[in-house]
């Protein structure tokens, strides 16, 4: 992995300020002499004298701190542990001679990053809006049992292409958030070998087309506290690259090693290799290896680095021209496994749960008729769910007041008022104040989602709609808000 010392301290605490995960490096930085595994489950207050000088508190912002004669970048990342909020603290050693950037340059850099982030957010919104219709109707078609095999093949090609485009949009959004320091992670305890097996299945079709064999040599059943979505993206990007840049009839091997409190996961290929002079650029955004014809945007490896670092890990590569490459990343192991992360891939259970809800009235306030038509088709299998629709905020408020509505889906960008204004007027009216409202929007920045939830929305669904998430939210809200 290289000889350089990457002293990265990691501390994860739950909503009660109890320690969920901690590594030896963090103990060294804080000056705690107890072994990390003995700290699991203890309250941070017991170690306040050690943590105070590091600024570990709910209000702390990211900054550079000095400890034990070294300089560390302190990152505080709010996360979810199960269904409850927690905090991930990452202390990265940045003790180098080049830590003297002038404040004026730093300010200009931050402004440029903010402008870039806003531009990507707007582009993402504009691209997501048409994708909502494409993916929504294609998902509905794929559920149609009367399709011929050829028709289903065509539908799945549409789905595949649309999802690929959505992944690119998501990748750009993630990159903008990461570069602006606003990348969100939702941590959970996962069994790493299960996630690896899933990721291999996703890449297998591409490997078969290129006659490349994927060999799983993982011998770990350990648990790590990570964002399940992010770890899947990391593995998928590394495995996809290993296939894309490989030779025909080549091999991709995924394996692991251990290093004290960390698991190191390696994705090795028998491909073209990477020249030494390109190592320093390989993880930069939009960088492509010279002399290759493989499709790609050049953001995958940049995201891998950002995702790994956001979860307290490190990433690197070893390579030899003509012999292949070995991309690796390391993550802290959770000392105490709490549960297996349950995977939820089948849509059928969600449909069955919604069918058991009983008679309900749902109002969809949306100015695009194609999206209303999509919602009609989504709810068509549930005759007991009666759908009302409105194309502007005022019309929606009138329907909500006149009918005994059980749930409102509300588009956040209406022609006459925004979603927050509609919600505010609903809350003011006694007849509508208790109706649960779910926001629908193509704006998927974490700040947008957190703002909506803090203002009183019951949920936030991103466009394009994912039917499983949609059905899951309907079931959750309508079974929790039954009328007396």
UniProtKB/TrEMBL annotation:
Domain Response regulatory: 361-478
EC number: 2.7.13.3
Catalyzed reaction equations: ATP + protein L-histidine = ADP + protein N-phospho-L-histidine
UniProt-listed SMART domains: HATPase_c (SM00387), HisKA (SM00388), REC (SM00448)
Single GO cellular component term: plasma membrane
UniProt entry tagged with the keyword Membrane: yes
Keywords: ATP-binding, Cell membrane, Kinase, Membrane, Nucleotide-binding, Phosphoprotein, Transferase, Two-component regulatory system
Signal peptide (residue range): none
Statement: the UniProt record of this protein carries the keyword Nucleotide-binding: yes
One Pfam family recorded for the sequence: HATPase_c
Main location: membrane
Protein name: histidine kinase
Taxonomic source organism: Anoxybacteroides tepidamans
């Amino acid at each position: 992995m290289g000889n350089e010392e990457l002293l990265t301290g990691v501390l994860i605490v739950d909503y009660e300020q109890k320690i969920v995960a901690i590594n030896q490096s963090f103990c060294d930085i804080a000056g705690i002499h107890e072994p990390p595994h003995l700290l699991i489950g203890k309250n941070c207050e017991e170690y306040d004298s050690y943590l105070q000088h590091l600024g570990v508190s709910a209000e702390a912002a990211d900054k550079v701190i000095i400890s034990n004669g070294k300089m560390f970048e302190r990152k505080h990342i709010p996360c979810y542990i199960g269904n409850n909020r927690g905090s991930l603290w990452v202390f990265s050693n940045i003790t180098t001679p080049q830590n003297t950037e002038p404040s004026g340059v730093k300010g200009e850099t931050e402004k440029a990053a903010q402008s870039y982030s806003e531009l990507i957010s707007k582009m993402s919104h504009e691209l997501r809006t048409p994708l909502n219709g494409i993916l929504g109707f294609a998902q509905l078609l794929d559920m149609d049992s009367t399709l011929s095999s050829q028709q289903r093949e065509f539908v799945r090609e549409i789905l595949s292409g649309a999802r690929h485009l959505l992944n690119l949009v998501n990748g750009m959004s993630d990159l903008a958030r990461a570069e602006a320091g606003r990348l969100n992670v939702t941590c959970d305890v996962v069994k790493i070998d299960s996630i690896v097996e899933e990721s291999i299945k996703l890449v297998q079709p591409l490997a078969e087309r290129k006659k490349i064999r994927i060999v799983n040599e993982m011998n770990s059943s350990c648990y790590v506290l990570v964002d399940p979505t992010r770890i899947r993206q990391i593995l998928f990007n590394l495995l996809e690259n290993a296939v894309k840049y490989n030779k025909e009839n080549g091999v991709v091997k995924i394996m692991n090693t251990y290093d004290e409190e960390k698991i190191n996961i390696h994705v090795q290929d028998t491909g073209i290799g990477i020249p030494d002079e390109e190592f320093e650029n390989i993880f930069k955004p939009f960088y492509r290896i010279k002399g290759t014809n493989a499709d790609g945007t050049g953001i995958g490896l940049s995201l891998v680095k950002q995702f790994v670092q956001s979860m307290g890990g490190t990433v690197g590569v070893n390579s030899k021209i003509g012999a292949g490459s070995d991309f690796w990343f390391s993550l802290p192991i959770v000392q105490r496994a709490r549960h297996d992360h349950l995977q939820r891939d089948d849509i059928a259970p969600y449909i069955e749960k919604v069918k058991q809800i009983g008679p309900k009235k749902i109002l969809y306030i949306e100015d695009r008729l194609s999206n209303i038509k999509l919602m009609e088709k989504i709810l068509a299998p549930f005759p007991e769910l009666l759908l009302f629709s409105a194309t502007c905020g005022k019309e929606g408020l009138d329907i909500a007041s006149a009918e005994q509505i059980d749930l409102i889906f509300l588009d956040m960008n209406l022609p006459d008022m925004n979603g927050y204004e509609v919600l505010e007027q609903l809350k003011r009216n006694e007849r509508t104040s208790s109706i649960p409202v779910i926001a629908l929007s193509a704006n998927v920045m974490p700040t947008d989602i957190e703002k909506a939830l803090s203002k009183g929305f019951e949920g936030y669904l991103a466009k394009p709609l994912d039917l499983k998430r949609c059905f899951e939210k309907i079931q959750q809200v309508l079974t929790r808000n039954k009328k007396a």
